[in-house]
Design goal:
about 70 residues, about 5% strand, two-stranded antiparallel sheet, elongated, mainly alpha
């Protein structure tokens, strides 16, 4: 656990407990929002750039394309 242990928690003043809870809530909100934004961008990227691997009527994979060069 990265926060205060149970014995340390009991020793904190009520003001420190409130401050810690606000800090924790803010951190979770920021990182949760960033994670949601990254997922949204990833899904949008996949949806809008999904190209078929079917080139000229037959599937052509990256390794095959590289070997033809």
């Amino acid at each position: 656990m990265m926060g205060p242990s149970q014995s340390q928690w009991r020793l904190l003043s009520p003001e420190d407990r409130i401050l810690y809870k606000k800090w924790l809530r803010g951190g979770l909100l920021i990182y949760g929002s960033l994670m949601a934004a990254m997922v949204l961008v990833s899904v949008a990227s996949h949806v809008f750039t999904s190209a078929s691997s079917d080139v000229a009527g037959e599937p052509l994979h990256t390794a095959a394309m590289a070997s033809k060069r």
